[in-house]
Structures are given as C-alpha cells and as structure tokens.
C-alpha cells in the first residue's frame, strides 16, 4: 500500500494550480516522496501546454533504479511506470483532497532483488508470526506471546520458487527451532498471489501438510490485491516472475475518482 501511495502522491504532485510543470519539476516531485534514488528520470507529455492549467496531463513516464521509500525500509532495484492521460478537477488543485474527473490508469513494472528483500524482512516478521506461530503451535488456546521469529532469510530460486528460513525462539529456551519453508508462486485471476506446493520443516522434520496448507491459504489471502479496492485502488497482476535472486512484477493499476488515496502531497504526507 505504501508503495502505491507514494507513486500516486508523486504523480498527482505534478499538476499544480499554476500549471507550470516541466520534466525537472516532475522529477523533483517524485524525489520528494523518496528517501533516496540512485537514478530517476521522469518525462511529462502534455500538448497543448495550456491543458496543465485545466488539470490535464497527457502521459507521465518514469524510470528509476535504486529507489528507497521514505516510510518503509525497502529498496526497489528497478521501476518503470507509464500512465494514461490524467484529468484532475481544476477546482481541487491546491486543496486538501484532489479530485479526479476520470480514473487514473498506469502500468507499473517493479524489479526487487533478494538482498533488498532480506533487509526489509525484520519489519515484516511481526505480521508473519501473528498467524503462523499459532498454526505451528497446534493448540491455539495456548499463549504464543513468548515465541518470536529471529534471523529470517529469503532466497529467490529459479522457476518461480522461493525458500524462507527463520528460527523460532522461546524466551526460556536457548535452542531455537530452525524452520524452512519452500513454495512456488502463481497468480490467480490476475488479483491474487498464491503459494504452490508449499512445504515446511521444523528442525528437519516435515510439518503436517494440512497445517502447511492452512498457513499457505492465510498468506495467499494477505497477498490478494482485491483488498486494496476498499481504497479505490484496483491492481491487476500481468506478470510475476521469480528467478535466481530477483523478483519481477508487472501490474496494471487503476485509481478511481473516489479513492481515499487522493490526498494532495503538497499539503499532506499521510501514511495509509
């Protein structure tokens, strides 16, 4: 969610009441939403130029490398984005909330590298262990608050597969359990990333498949992009490819005029 919010804020920040937008100004608007960018190029197509005053932009094209988000500890190795025409209600320019006169469409190509994902893993562990540890514990009525995941590591393998290794540590135990999970990835209906033929071992002993399947189902629900529709954001996955140490994702994004993400980035820097 944070990734799409930053992109949207940067794109809509290109349209100003004065209508004075050039490629350099556009690039600065995007950079203001990032902590760091190794390379960033933005191209704004708009003819005739007076359409800017009317809140219209013909197309925005963006290419970046080594982008680090402000609010999240994750680096994006590569990013390409191209929008269809953008049409903002002029009277909403400079206001707290921008108003689109029609939906905003964009194609987004994201490249993530294994090393960057591993750096971001510690911030995701709390979310993962919230529903995985109770499953591994068997008895859901038993408190699991004294267990935690430590030393996580993700490996991106060939043929759309990945391996996740982590240790499950208890406060009163010096010997943590070694957990290894491996699975393939597939896309269902263009909206959901699913785990394919998942396996889990704990200290080299296989976890019962019915438990593994339930964990996989929960994770797949978390990776359902339809959850974003409540924010007026629709995402369709066009390509998901996992190769050695890289993850390649191509999506089509639609932002509805009623989207709650349409906060003016020059007036507000909210985090969803």
What sequence of helices (H) and strands (E) makes up the elements?
A: HHEEEEEEHEEEEEHEE
Shape: elongated
The number of helical elements comes to: 4
Q: How are strands sequenced across the largest beta sheet?
A: 1-3-4-6-13-12
The total count of strands amounts to: 13
- Stretches where pLDDT is under 50 for at least 5 consecutive residues are 17-21, 266-272
Helical residue percent band = 10-25%
Largest sheet: 6 strands, antiparallel
The overall pLDDT average reads 81
Query: Termini separation (Å)?
Result: 7 Å
Would you write up a description of this structure?
- This protein is of the alpha+beta class and 272 residues long.
- The chain is built from four helices and 13 strands.
- It has helices at 2-12, 23-31, 114-137, 209-222; strands at residues 34-45, 56-57, 59-69, 75-83, 86-87, 104-113, 147-156, 161-170, 177-188, 192-202, 205-206, 233-243, 246-255.
- The strands form three sheets. A six-stranded antiparallel beta sheet has the order 1-3-4-6-13-12.
- Strand 8 and strand 9 (177-188) form a beta hairpin.
- Helix 1 (2-12) runs antiparallel to helix 2 (23-31) and helix 3 (114-137) packs across helix 4.
- The chain is elongated, with a radius of gyration of 21 Å.
- The relative contact order is 0.15.
- Mean pLDDT is 81; it is low at 17-21 and 266-272.
């Amino acid at each position: 969610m944070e990734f799409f919010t930053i992109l949207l804020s940067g794109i809509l920040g290109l349209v100003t009441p004065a209508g004075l937008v050039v490629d350099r100004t556009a690039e600065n608007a995007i950079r203001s939403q990032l902590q760091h960018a190794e390379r960033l190029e933005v191209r704004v197509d708009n003819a005739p130029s007076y359409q800017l005053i009317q809140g219209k932009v013909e197309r925005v094209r963006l290419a970046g490398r080594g982008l680090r988000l402000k609010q999240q500890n994750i680096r994006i190795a590569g990013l390409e984005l191209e929008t269809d025409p953008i049409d903002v209600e002029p009277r909403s320019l400079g206001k707290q909330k921008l108003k689109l006169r029609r939906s905003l469409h964009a194609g987004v190509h994201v490249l993530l590298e294994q090393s960057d994902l591993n750096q971001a893993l510690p911030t995701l562990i709390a979310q993962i262990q919230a529903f995985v540890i109770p499953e591994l514990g068997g008895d859901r009525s038993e408190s699991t608050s004294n267990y935690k995941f430590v030393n996580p590591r993700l490996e991106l393998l060939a043929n759309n597969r990945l391996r996740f290794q982590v240790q499950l540590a208890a406060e009163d135990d010096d010997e943590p359990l070694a957990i290894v999970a491996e699975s393939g990835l597939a896309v269902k209906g263009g909206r959901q990333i699913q785990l394919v033929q998942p396996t889990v071992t704990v200290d080299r002993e296989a976890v019962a498949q019915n438990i593994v399947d339930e964990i996989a189902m929960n994770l797949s629900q978390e990776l359902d992009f339809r959850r974003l529709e409540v924010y007026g954001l629709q995402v369709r996955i066009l390509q998901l490819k996992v190769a050695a140490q890289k993850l390649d994702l191509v999506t089509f994004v639609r932002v509805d005029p009623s989207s709650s993400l349409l906060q003016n980035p020059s007036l507000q820097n909210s985090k969803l």
